[in-house]
Amino acid sequence: MAVGSSSSTSFTRRRMNDAQGETPHILFDIQERGCGFFLWHDPELSERTKGIINDLKRDNKKLQMEISELKKSNMYIESAVDCNVLLKPVNNSVTMKLSDEICSLNRKFRVAIVVVVFTWIVMIWRWLV
Question: I need a surface site. Which of 28, 78, 82, 115 has the fewest CB within 10 A?
Answer without folding.
Answer: 115
